[in-house]
Amino acid sequence: MQLFDTRSGDLRPLITGHTVRLYVCGITPYDAAHLGHASTYVMFDVLIRLLEHRGHRVRYVRNVTDVDDDILRTARERDVDYRTLAERETAAFDRDLRALGCRAPDVAPRATETVPAIVTAVGGLLARGSAYALDDGRVYFDIASAHDFGRLSRLDRDRMLEQFAEKGGDPEASGKRDELDFLLWQPSGDGEPRWPSPWGDGRPGWHIECSVMAMEHLGGVIDIHGGGSDLVFPHHEAEIAQSEHLTGQGPFARFWLHTGMVGLDGEKMSKSVGNLVFARDLLDRFEGATIRAYVLAHHYRETWSHSDDDLQAACDRVKRWRAAATGDGSDATMEQTLLRCLDNDLDTPRALAALDRLADEGHGESVRRMATVLGLDLGNDLTA
After folding, report:
1. Co-location of 255 and 345 in the same domain
2. What distance in Å separates the CA atoms of residue 48 and residue 59, rounded to the nearest whole number?
3. Average pLDDT over the chain, rounded to whole?
């Protein structure tokens, strides 16, 4: 199997032991899951199924960022406790993913449950000289200590500063040694949750949450770390820096996999813009297998825009597969062709084309077997 590693910038063989340790950044549960979320988690679900089909055990961790600026702001706007908001939206998210055929993670840690470990990690970075504390209770990671900061994103400093500001950073904050230094710990505002720490009561920064949750459940070096391409900078860049400085090991992740963005009318779907197609709305109109086939018709690294016509085409495609899956024929050669497509950087569009051919040629047993690898519920006995 070969996968495209964002950090090295090339396609590389996945060499791993029997157990593959996978961490995928989860949601911040302050609104419903949209099609971009669905696309990311469906794609990683196919990766998990493929690895298991190849004989691996996958330990899959997907976090819940249940305390950060976005969820606290939304909770205030809706006059609801942030924990109530998080519980409601996380439950809805899990229901949507189940309907899309996605398996549950082995562990779904929550940031709020990990705060004591985060405090320990921040203290470790301070002790190593990779972070500094300010008198007002803020603690920052010192990017000057990370000689390869920017290697993952390959952005120049001006572009880093632009994205840092766009995605919740504080480049203009006073007292910082560098505009790109990022928060590890911060004082809580009025009415915000707070936890004790040596630097004063407060709450963690966004990036350190994921590092600690990943290391708590997968160790200091993991096999695959994934998420949407919008997380490359600053989130995943920051994770690499703080994690490798904390453990003294590297790489933090052997592979970094990033999914492309899903848009609407040529613009990336974003909660801040409001141009969202919600997974739940699609599930009210189409079955999960149809939406899954619609997503898998795009390569995971592709940026694409939602199309009702393409969604209807996926519906028709699933009907053809389902009709063919009642038959008994098989074609081992074409099955291997389909699997080789997936082994080649999860080329799901070509894999679906191979499934089309199996269906067109009446190889129902092969259709059922390969649909299982792709996570497509065709309503047939997939063990037949």
Report:
1. no
2. 9
3. 95
